[in-house]
TrEMBL record:
<comment type="similarity">
    <text>Belongs to the TonB-dependent receptor family.</text>
</comment>
<dbReference type="Pfam" id="PF07715">
    <property type="entry name" value="Plug"/>
</dbReference>
<dbReference type="InterPro" id="IPR018247">
    <property type="entry name" value="EF_Hand_1_Ca_BS"/>
</dbReference>
<keyword id="KW-0998">Cell outer membrane</keyword>
<dbReference type="GO" id="GO:0015344">
    <property type="term" value="F:siderophore uptake transmembrane transporter activity"/>
</dbReference>
<keyword id="KW-0406">Ion transport</keyword>
<keyword id="KW-0813">Transport</keyword>
<feature type="domain" description="TonB-dependent receptor plug">
    <location>
        <begin position="79"/>
        <end position="176"/>
    </location>
</feature>
<keyword id="KW-0732">Signal</keyword>
<keyword id="KW-1134">Transmembrane beta strand</keyword>
<keyword id="KW-0812">Transmembrane</keyword>
<dbReference type="InterPro" id="IPR037066">
    <property type="entry name" value="Plug_dom_sf"/>
</dbReference>
<keyword id="KW-0408">Iron</keyword>
<keyword id="KW-0472">Membrane</keyword>
<protein>
    <submittedName>
        <fullName>TonB-dependent receptor</fullName>
    </submittedName>
</protein>
<dbReference type="InterPro" id="IPR012910">
    <property type="entry name" value="Plug_dom"/>
</dbReference>
<dbReference type="InterPro" id="IPR036942">
    <property type="entry name" value="Beta-barrel_TonB_sf"/>
</dbReference>
Length: 837
């Protein structure tokens, strides 16, 4: 059938002033053609848009991932059709399974187990390396533990394994999370009769107090209809960990309006104000501590004079109070002072003898106790404050010739400041703006349909970040007692001490990308994409001085920075994917990709030394072979993929940070989602992978823990710190990423209102660091929930860690893996009460 000239046709429906993209979004949130008053010319029955959604069983949790996912390639393919490993988690799934952090997301997504970035869940480790975060398809500023990424504010989260599409720009090889905010529902608001929304309150263990609210609907601007959606979240909660808390304000707003039949505009933003702490976890780590909870108490044997009477050990007091005992381990000034760094050579920990450790670096051994997991390296004086502002403006136009033109303008700023009493502090102020212009059109030839995208883009980042690590001493504090004058270590945020690094950089990135999705006949699909980026960078080293009083406004002190290091460079990226639809619902595929990535660290800063050397671009490559399938009339989604990916060029990785080290990961991932009936849904995911360092040449800078020097009594050096270039194997484990992990989950509806969920996870044992001398035990985790849901209200009770399992997560394994381990939370519960209107 054909539609009139002033309409277009899709799946037997004719549309006037509603675009196909808008209609797909309406279906995605449960609005049918009939509910919008759109009539089919040949049938009055509602039409299900996606081929892969069964009409026999409802998928209210979005398990089948059938709706269009533009975050990977931008063509609106479903996850089944996309020739890459990708998983989507809907807001309904997040609510039903009580997902509150990205660590919870990783439970249900194969290959995305995440180490601890000092307790702040900012980004996933995907396939063993740090991933990027995207917001509505545009890359966000780097969040390596700067603030916890808000999960509850998401309408959907897409987890992409491997590098992003060339259109989205260079990304880390591990993968990315793309957040589709709840305010995406503004697209449907203009078509509703009245406002609709929900208010929720959550309480629970450790004084959990969280209030959420959301509201969406229609507005009028002159004669134009405007859809809006707003979301807010307030939290003031304590924590499982002593002296820890979460205080957060989160606001989202979005607006969507058709300016004309052919032109549409979307704009909005998000504001997040978070206060909490970095969490160093347990210190004085031994195998006995992890296996039995046995902790060795005791105070430092020596404390330097407090010359300025501030109750802390300052830089000057370190230098004056801790002198070399006269016995060196290897080379001049090796093991000198409290921070015993071997700068004259590579350390073989097995050859260190007690006589080489200065006596003042010991502790006076006390009793052994069973350490409570709540006692961690957080002091009441510690803090971490972050403010994030995210704004976007999208303009979409469809020409009469069939071209679709989209302009995406994105802005984000992040300001943060953190202080930790064992001697670490950091502050930063970074903003970035990106504009993507995307031209898209479909071309049809004999037996071939090609969807084309062409995209020029520009991105500018203005970044500042400072860190203090000059005297970072974990083991002086006795966690059974807490900090005192012998263990408080001053930082630039509470004294006149110096910063260890103080970097400021400006970066402008010009990109041009091409992507073509070619359907040959009915079964073969060939997707090819390429991108070139030209980058101009300017980086400066600031004075190492007390600058915390103007931490949020470095531009107000133009004389603090030295002469800038400048450089320009460019890099090529590509993606090639081939898939074929076989009988029986099987779609095998092969993907090859290579990526050029800018080596940024926390707050998107770049060490000027790397800029000076010209090594600030890193190359990555990936090969992935997989099969996807849907069976039983669309009620089963299955995917399995084998991958081999590596960051192959990192010449400045030590300064760029752990998130940019040269890592190779290879393995197999599997995912199964099954709608057994309207009452029962089942899920399974599993991953087997190996993650290793590839460019260490037999040594790596690391802090040395008790497991690295079993021949030494650890009380000899726990008053100080051992660190240096440590001997490791040719390809040691990255640390913290288990070789095996799997999850089994299910939801059962006992009635139309009452349902229950259960989730079981197994995580295998894993080396805590690249030295491979300390293993974190395997563990099993069981979570469950029960909810009663009506059209007006919802009551849900969830229990995490039902078996009260004692388990641990590696803490920044590349540097501190054997020195600091994060004990995870014990059994806990939450109760949520929601009112819908």
């Amino acid at each position: 059938m054909c539609c009139h000239n002033d309409s277009f046709c899709h799946l037997g429906l004719c549309f006037g002033d509603v675009s196909v993209k808008t209609y797909k979004s309406l279906v995605a949130v449960g609005l049918t053609a009939a509910s919008l008053g759109i009539q089919a010319q040949e049938s009055e029955e509602p039409v299900v848009l996606d081929t892969y959604v069964t009409e026999e069983v409802s998928d209210d949790l979005g398990l089948l991932q059938a709706e269009p996912v533009s975050s990977v390639f931008g063509f609106g393919k479903s996850v089944l059709e996309t020739p890459r490993s990708v998983s989507s988690v809907s807001s309904e799934f997040i609510e039903e399974f009580n997902i509150s952090s990205i660590n919870d997301v990783a439970t249900f997504v194969p290959g995305s187990f995440t180490t601890s970035f000092f307790g702040v869940a900012g980004s996933l480790d995907i396939r063993g390396t740090a991933g990027d975060n995207y917001f509505r398809g545009v890359k966000r500023l780097t969040n390596d533990g700067t603030y916890p990424t808000a999960i509850g504010a998401s309408n959907r989260i897409d987890v992409i394994r491997g590098p992003m599409s060339p259109i989205a720009g260079p990304s880390r090889v591990g993968g990315a999370m793309n957040f589709v905010p709840k305010t995406a529902r503004a697209e449907t608001g203009a078509y509703l009769d009245s406002a609709t929304g929900k208010v929720s309150y959550t309480t629970g263990s450790w004084n959990k107090n969280q209030l959420k609210g959301e509201l969406g609907g229609p507005l009028s601007l002159g004669e134009q209809k405007l859809g809006y959606y707003v979301y807010g979240e307030l939290e003031d909660s304590d924590s499982f960990y002593k002296n820890d808390y979460t205080k957060q304000t989160l606001l989202q707003a979005a607006f969507n309006m058709d300016l004309s039949y052919a032109t549409r505009i979307e704009f909005g933003g998000m504001y997040q104000d978070w206060s909490g702490h970095e969490n160093g976890g347990w210190n004085r780590v031994t195998a006995d501590l992890l296996s039995n909870g046995t902790y060795i108490t005791g105070q430092p044997a020596f404390t330097p004079d407090d010359t300025n009477n501030n109750g802390m050990i300052d830089d000057a007091e370190f230098v004056a109070g801790f002198v070399d005992s006269g016995t060196n381990y290897d080379g001049t000034n090796c093991w000198a002072g409290l921070q015993m760094w071997c700068g004259g050579g590579t350390v073989d920990p097995s050859t260190i003898i007690p006589a080489s450790i200065p006596a003042q670096n010991s502790i006076i051994k006390g009793d052994t106790i069973k350490l409570d997991g709540r006692n961690v390296l957080i002091d009441p004086n510690d803090y971490y404050d972050t403010e994030v502002t995210t704004l976007y403006l999208d303009l979409m136009h469809e020409t009469e010739s069939g071209w679709s033109i989209t302009n995406k303008l994105f802005f984000e700023s992040v300001q943060s400041e953190a202080m930790i009493s064992y001697g670490f502090a950091k502050a930063g102020d970074t903003w970035g703006v990106e504009n993507q212009l995307i031209f898209a059109k479909q071309f049809m030839f004999d037996g071939v349909t090609s969807d084309i995208q062409v995209s020029p883009s520009i991105r500018h980042v203005d970044a500042w970040g400072a860190n203090d690590y000059i005297h970072e001493v974990f083991d002086r504090v006795d966690l059974s007692v807490g900090y005192n004058e012998s263990s408080y270590v001053a930082t630039p945020l509470n004294s006149d001490d110096l910063w260890g690094t103080n970097n400021y950089n400006k970066m402008t990135q010009l990109g041009f990308a091409f992507l073509a999705d070619n359907k040959v006949g009915d079964n073969l699909s060939i997707l090819v994409g390429a991108r070139y980026d030209y980058v101009d960078i300017e980086a400066s080293v600031g004075e190492v001085t007390d600058i915390h009083n103007f931490a949020y406004d470095p531009s107000s002190i133009p004389d603090i920075f030295d002469a800038a290091q400048t450089d320009t460079d460019g890099g090529f990226s590509y993606n090639v994917s081939v898939s074929y639809q076989l009988p029986g619902g099987f779609i095998p595929y092969v993907t090859l990709a290579e990526q050029t990535t800018i080596l940024t660290g926390v707050h998107d800063t770049i060490d000027p030394a790397i800029v000076n050397s010209g090594d600030w671009l890193g190359k990555s490559e990936m090969a992935e072979v997989g099969v996807k399938a849907n069976w039983l009339d669309g009620r089963i989604f299955f995917a399995v993929a084998g991958f081999d990916q590596e960051r192959v060029q990192v010449n400045g990785n030590a300064a760029a940070g752990e998130s940019n080290e040269a890592i190779r990961s290879k393995g197999v991932e599997m995912e199964l989602r099954y709608l057994v009936s309207d009452n029962l849904q089942l899920m399974a995911s599993a991953a087997q992978m190996e993650v290793v360092h590839t460019a260490l040449n037999g040594s790596k800078f690391s802090f040395i823990g008790a497991s690295d020097v079993p021949q030494l009594d650890p009380t000899l050096y726990w008053g100080g710190a051992l660190d240096g270039m440590v001997i490791v194997g040719d390809n040691p484990d990255r640390g913290g990423i288990p070789e095996q992990a799997f999850n089994l989950s299910g939801r059962y509806a006992l009635s139309d209102e009452l349902s229950a969920t259960l989730s079981y996870s197994y995580v295998g044992e894993v080396n805590a660091s690249p030295t491979e001398t300390l293993q974190i035990p395997s563990y099993q985790l069981l979570n469950g929930s029960v909810s009663y849901d009506t059209p007006t209200y919802r009551i849900a009770v969830a229990v995490n860690n039902l078996l009260d399992e004692t388990y641990f997560r590696a803490n920044f394994p590349g540097l501190y893996g054997n020195l600091s381990i994060l004990p995870e939370r014990s059994r806990s519960f939450t109760a949520t009460f929601s009112y819908k209107f």
